[in-house]
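Re: zinc ion structure - here you go.
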Amino acid sequence: MLIDTHAHLQFDPLKGDLDSILERAKNEGVGKIIVVGIDKESSEQAIKLAEKYENIFAAIGLHPQDSKKINGEDWNAIEEMTKHAKVIAIGETGLDYFKIYSPKEIQIEVFKKHIHLANQTGLPLIVHNRDADEDSLSILQNERAKHVVFHCYSSSLEFARRVWAAGYMTSFTGVVTYKKSDVLREVLKECPLEKIMVETDCPYLAPQKYRGGTNEPSYIIETVVEIAKQKGMEAREIEKLTTENAERFFSI
Ligand SMILES: [Zn+2]
Protein backbone atom coordinates (compact mmCIF):
# COMPACT_ATOMS: atom_id res chain seq x y z
CA MET A 1 0.00 0.00 0.00
CA LEU A 2 1.11 3.53 -0.84
CA ILE A 3 0.29 6.73 1.01
CA ASP A 4 0.04 10.11 -0.71
CA THR A 5 0.99 12.38 2.19
CA HIS A 6 0.17 15.68 0.46
CA ALA A 7 -2.70 16.14 -1.98
CA HIS A 8 -5.03 19.04 -2.69
CA LEU A 9 -8.08 17.04 -3.77
CA GLN A 10 -10.29 19.99 -2.83
CA PHE A 11 -8.74 22.09 -5.65
CA ASP A 12 -9.79 22.39 -9.28
CA PRO A 13 -9.79 20.36 -11.45
CA LEU A 14 -9.47 17.40 -9.03
CA LYS A 15 -12.56 18.13 -6.97
CA GLY A 16 -14.87 17.81 -9.96
CA ASP A 17 -13.71 14.29 -10.79
CA LEU A 18 -13.11 12.85 -7.36
CA ASP A 19 -14.77 9.46 -7.68
CA SER A 20 -12.75 8.41 -10.72
CA ILE A 21 -9.54 9.89 -9.23
CA LEU A 22 -10.05 7.88 -6.03
CA GLU A 23 -10.86 4.78 -8.06
CA ARG A 24 -7.60 5.09 -10.03
CA ALA A 25 -5.68 5.71 -6.79
CA LYS A 26 -7.15 2.55 -5.31
CA ASN A 27 -6.26 0.55 -8.41
CA GLU A 28 -2.64 1.73 -8.13
CA GLY A 29 -2.45 0.71 -4.49
CA VAL A 30 -2.80 4.14 -2.88
CA GLY A 31 -4.47 3.19 0.40
CA LYS A 32 -4.44 6.51 2.26
CA ILE A 33 -4.39 10.16 1.20
CA ILE A 34 -3.72 13.26 3.28
CA VAL A 35 -5.64 16.26 1.93
CA VAL A 36 -3.90 19.50 2.84
CA GLY A 37 -5.47 22.92 3.37
CA ILE A 38 -3.86 26.26 2.58
CA ASP A 39 -6.47 28.60 4.08
CA LYS A 40 -9.63 28.44 6.18
CA GLU A 41 -11.92 27.36 3.34
CA SER A 42 -9.65 24.68 1.86
CA SER A 43 -8.93 23.34 5.36
CA GLU A 44 -12.67 23.01 5.99
CA GLN A 45 -13.02 21.26 2.64
CA ALA A 46 -10.20 18.86 3.58
CA ILE A 47 -12.12 17.94 6.73
CA LYS A 48 -15.31 17.40 4.72
CA LEU A 49 -13.49 14.95 2.44
CA ALA A 50 -12.00 13.18 5.46
CA GLU A 51 -15.49 12.81 6.90
CA LYS A 52 -16.81 11.38 3.66
CA TYR A 53 -13.99 8.94 2.85
CA GLU A 54 -12.51 6.61 5.42
CA ASN A 55 -9.03 6.57 3.85
CA ILE A 56 -8.72 10.36 3.58
CA PHE A 57 -7.18 12.42 6.41
CA ALA A 58 -6.99 16.20 6.76
CA ALA A 59 -4.18 18.67 7.42
CA ILE A 60 -5.21 22.22 8.21
CA GLY A 61 -3.29 25.46 8.04
CA LEU A 62 -2.67 28.84 6.45
CA HIS A 63 -0.15 29.01 3.62
CA PRO A 64 2.70 31.55 4.03
CA GLN A 65 1.85 33.26 0.73
CA ASP A 66 -1.41 34.48 2.22
CA SER A 67 -0.04 35.42 5.65
CA LYS A 68 -0.90 39.08 5.25
CA LYS A 69 -4.58 38.34 4.64
CA ILE A 70 -5.08 36.27 7.77
CA ASN A 71 -7.35 37.63 10.46
CA GLY A 72 -8.25 36.53 13.97
CA GLU A 73 -11.32 34.71 12.77
CA ASP A 74 -9.26 32.55 10.39
CA TRP A 75 -6.89 31.67 13.18
CA ASN A 76 -9.68 30.78 15.64
CA ALA A 77 -11.20 28.52 13.02
CA ILE A 78 -7.88 26.72 12.50
CA GLU A 79 -7.46 26.22 16.25
CA GLU A 80 -10.97 24.83 16.48
CA MET A 81 -10.39 22.41 13.58
CA THR A 82 -7.47 20.74 15.39
CA LYS A 83 -10.04 19.08 17.67
CA HIS A 84 -11.51 17.10 14.77
CA ALA A 85 -10.68 13.38 14.95
CA LYS A 86 -9.51 13.19 11.34
CA VAL A 87 -7.28 16.25 11.47
CA ILE A 88 -3.89 14.59 11.73
CA ALA A 89 -1.47 17.44 10.98
CA ILE A 90 -1.01 21.20 10.94
CA GLY A 91 -0.07 22.70 7.60
CA GLU A 92 0.72 23.68 5.22
CA THR A 93 2.63 26.39 6.97
CA GLY A 94 6.16 27.71 6.57
CA LEU A 95 8.03 30.42 4.71
CA ASP A 96 8.11 31.38 1.05
CA TYR A 97 10.75 33.92 0.07
CA PHE A 98 10.64 33.03 -3.63
CA LYS A 99 7.93 35.50 -4.42
CA ILE A 100 7.27 37.58 -1.36
CA TYR A 101 3.48 37.78 -1.52
CA SER A 102 3.47 38.59 2.20
CA PRO A 103 6.21 40.47 4.12
CA LYS A 104 8.77 38.20 5.79
CA GLU A 105 7.98 39.44 9.30
CA ILE A 106 4.31 38.53 8.90
CA GLN A 107 5.16 35.12 7.43
CA ILE A 108 7.43 34.42 10.40
CA GLU A 109 4.80 35.49 12.92
CA VAL A 110 2.16 33.22 11.37
CA PHE A 111 4.64 30.34 11.04
CA LYS A 112 5.44 30.60 14.76
CA LYS A 113 1.72 30.48 15.60
CA HIS A 114 1.40 27.22 13.68
CA ILE A 115 4.43 25.78 15.47
CA HIS A 116 2.99 26.71 18.87
CA LEU A 117 -0.34 25.13 17.93
CA ALA A 118 1.50 21.95 16.93
CA ASN A 119 3.36 21.94 20.22
CA GLN A 120 0.11 22.38 22.15
CA THR A 121 -1.85 19.73 20.28
CA GLY A 122 0.96 17.25 19.62
CA LEU A 123 0.08 17.23 15.91
CA PRO A 124 2.92 17.04 13.34
CA LEU A 125 3.77 20.02 11.13
CA ILE A 126 3.80 20.07 7.33
CA VAL A 127 6.30 22.75 6.32
CA HIS A 128 6.44 24.59 3.01
CA ASN A 129 9.93 26.07 2.57
CA ARG A 130 10.85 27.97 -0.53
CA ASP A 131 14.12 29.92 -0.63
CA ALA A 132 13.96 30.27 3.15
CA ASP A 133 16.22 27.44 4.39
CA GLU A 134 18.00 29.27 7.19
CA ASP A 135 14.92 30.94 8.68
CA SER A 136 12.72 27.84 8.38
CA LEU A 137 15.12 25.56 10.19
CA SER A 138 16.27 28.01 12.87
CA ILE A 139 12.69 29.05 13.71
CA LEU A 140 11.55 25.42 13.96
CA GLN A 141 14.44 24.60 16.27
CA ASN A 142 14.15 27.77 18.38
CA GLU A 143 10.42 27.18 18.83
CA ARG A 144 11.12 23.54 19.72
CA ALA A 145 9.06 21.96 16.97
CA LYS A 146 9.29 18.20 17.35
CA HIS A 147 7.43 16.44 14.54
CA VAL A 148 8.20 18.16 11.27
CA VAL A 149 8.20 17.23 7.60
CA PHE A 150 9.74 19.43 4.92
CA HIS A 151 7.13 18.83 2.24
CA CYS A 152 8.14 18.80 -1.44
CA TYR A 153 11.78 18.87 -0.42
CA SER A 154 13.67 20.98 -2.95
CA SER A 155 16.76 22.41 -1.22
CA SER A 156 20.40 21.31 -1.26
CA LEU A 157 21.99 18.10 0.02
CA GLU A 158 23.89 20.08 2.64
CA PHE A 159 20.65 21.55 4.00
CA ALA A 160 18.96 18.13 3.91
CA ARG A 161 21.69 16.77 6.18
CA ARG A 162 20.88 19.53 8.70
CA VAL A 163 17.13 18.79 8.45
CA TRP A 164 17.74 15.08 9.15
CA ALA A 165 20.17 15.89 11.99
CA ALA A 166 17.41 18.01 13.58
CA GLY A 167 15.25 14.88 13.58
CA TYR A 168 12.92 16.10 10.83
CA MET A 169 11.49 14.24 7.84
CA THR A 170 11.75 15.00 4.12
CA SER A 171 8.95 14.29 1.66
CA PHE A 172 9.44 13.98 -2.10
CA THR A 173 7.20 14.71 -5.08
CA GLY A 174 7.30 13.87 -8.79
CA VAL A 175 9.93 16.62 -9.16
CA VAL A 176 12.51 13.89 -8.45
CA THR A 177 11.66 12.44 -11.89
CA TYR A 178 12.43 15.66 -13.79
CA LYS A 179 15.54 15.77 -15.96
CA LYS A 180 17.00 18.78 -14.16
CA SER A 181 16.60 17.35 -10.66
CA ASP A 182 20.13 15.95 -10.23
CA VAL A 183 20.54 17.65 -6.85
CA LEU A 184 17.37 16.02 -5.56
CA ARG A 185 18.53 12.62 -6.75
CA GLU A 186 21.74 13.16 -4.73
CA VAL A 187 19.57 14.00 -1.72
CA LEU A 188 17.63 10.77 -2.25
CA LYS A 189 20.81 8.70 -2.43
CA GLU A 190 21.86 9.94 1.00
CA CYS A 191 18.47 10.22 2.65
CA PRO A 192 18.20 7.86 5.64
CA LEU A 193 15.47 5.31 4.92
CA GLU A 194 13.47 6.33 7.98
CA LYS A 195 13.37 9.99 6.84
CA ILE A 196 11.65 9.51 3.44
CA MET A 197 8.00 10.05 2.68
CA VAL A 198 6.25 10.49 -0.66
CA GLU A 199 3.55 12.85 -1.88
CA THR A 200 2.09 14.13 -5.13
CA ASP A 201 1.24 17.75 -4.16
CA CYS A 202 -1.47 17.28 -6.80
CA PRO A 203 -2.91 18.91 -8.86
CA TYR A 204 0.60 20.41 -9.22
CA LEU A 205 3.94 18.84 -10.13
CA ALA A 206 2.90 15.90 -12.27
CA PRO A 207 5.84 13.48 -12.68
CA GLN A 208 7.87 13.52 -15.90
CA LYS A 209 5.69 10.92 -17.64
CA TYR A 210 2.60 13.11 -17.21
CA ARG A 211 4.32 16.48 -17.11
CA GLY A 212 2.17 19.42 -18.13
CA GLY A 213 -0.98 17.55 -17.15
CA THR A 214 -2.97 17.42 -13.94
CA ASN A 215 -1.27 15.43 -11.21
CA GLU A 216 -3.27 12.97 -9.09
CA PRO A 217 -2.59 10.44 -6.30
CA SER A 218 -2.35 7.42 -8.65
CA TYR A 219 0.83 8.92 -10.16
CA ILE A 220 2.72 8.61 -6.88
CA ILE A 221 4.21 5.31 -8.02
CA GLU A 222 6.45 7.29 -10.42
CA THR A 223 8.15 8.94 -7.45
CA VAL A 224 8.50 5.63 -5.63
CA VAL A 225 10.13 4.03 -8.67
CA GLU A 226 12.64 6.90 -8.95
CA ILE A 227 13.54 6.65 -5.26
CA ALA A 228 14.01 2.89 -5.63
CA LYS A 229 16.36 3.52 -8.56
CA GLN A 230 18.48 5.96 -6.55
CA LYS A 231 18.57 3.62 -3.56
CA GLY A 232 19.30 0.48 -5.60
CA MET A 233 16.25 -1.13 -4.05
CA GLU A 234 12.95 -2.63 -5.25
CA ALA A 235 9.98 -0.28 -5.67
CA ARG A 236 8.06 -2.65 -3.40
CA GLU A 237 10.56 -2.05 -0.59
CA ILE A 238 10.33 1.74 -0.98
CA GLU A 239 6.55 1.46 -1.00
CA LYS A 240 6.61 -0.45 2.27
CA LEU A 241 9.05 1.79 4.08
CA THR A 242 7.57 5.12 2.96
CA THR A 243 4.16 3.84 4.06
CA GLU A 244 5.50 2.77 7.44
CA ASN A 245 7.20 6.15 7.84
CA ALA A 246 3.98 8.03 7.00
CA GLU A 247 1.87 5.86 9.32
CA ARG A 248 4.30 6.43 12.17
CA PHE A 249 4.79 10.15 11.54
CA PHE A 250 1.12 11.05 11.09
CA SER A 251 -0.29 8.34 13.40
CA ILE A 252 -2.66 7.11 10.69
ZN1 LIG B 1 0.78 21.70 -1.24
